[in-house]
Amino acid sequence: MINRNDHGRDPSAGRTIALQAWVESGVPMLRAPRQFVRELHQRHLPQPGTTVVAVLDAAHQLTASASFSARQHVTDGWHHRNTILSHLRQVIPHDLRLAAPVRTAVLMRCREGIPEWTEQDGAWMWALRDAAALHGLRCGSYVALTPAGWHVIGHDWRGRSPHSGSWADGPVHTVTELPPRSAREPERTRPSAAVTPLDAIRRAAAR
Question: Is the pTM of this model over 0.90?
Fold first, then answer.
């Protein structure tokens, strides 16, 4: 039986989360957001277009994480849910047997654009919440890494570093250090010591 009242509606319309709904959902706060963001960034060095999913234990310590590339300009969380879930399964066992979730899933998305919430962020939030539930985890914070810096969306936590271009901020080695030339030259190529007349006489006498 067809419900004609739904004719023409987008079936994916509910697979996103608005910012206000995200704030009101009671997402557990990060205990040390600046330290967490830096540690996760150092582990994966995400570039724009990279998403990182991480798992925190009961003490809010980082226990597992995975980074991956996915379709970024999508406003339907269905496209991202299975990707997040498959990476969670690769890095940590599920907690579905527990009566209540103990560990927390957190998402960091490195992207271009404004640091505030976007429609694409809403789709990723929906995907994180659904994937976390299917893996027996709590849904945790959502971090946007943009040219302006990092921002825990829904909370007033942000900073200038790291940002979406920080992956390239490391030192660039243009000169390779080599050992001293004398240590690299074969023995036969090294110049012989100078021979004095007295040395020549001694050598002749010794023959």
Answer: no
- Please answer whether residues 30 and 141 qualify as being in contact, where contact means their C-beta atoms are separated by less than 8 angstroms: yes
Distance CA 191, CA 186 (A): 11
| pLDDT tens profile 9-56 | 344 456 999 999 999 999 999 999 999 999 999 999 999 999 999 999
Q: Which of 49, 94, 82 is nearest to 67 (CA)?
A: 49
Spell out where the chain has E strands: 50-56, 62-69, 104-110, 138-146, 149-152, 157-159
What CATH code is assigned to 10-168? Answer: 3.40.140.10
| Cα→Cα distances 73→19, 118, 121, 138, Å | 18, 10, 10, 26
Domain borders along the chain are 10-168
| Token pair of 28 as six digits | 């557990």
**For 86-109, how does the pLDDT look when each residue is reduced to its tens digit (9 = 90+)?**
999 999 999 999 999 999 999 999
Q: In whole angstroms, what is the distance from residue 138 CA to residue 88 CA?
A: 13
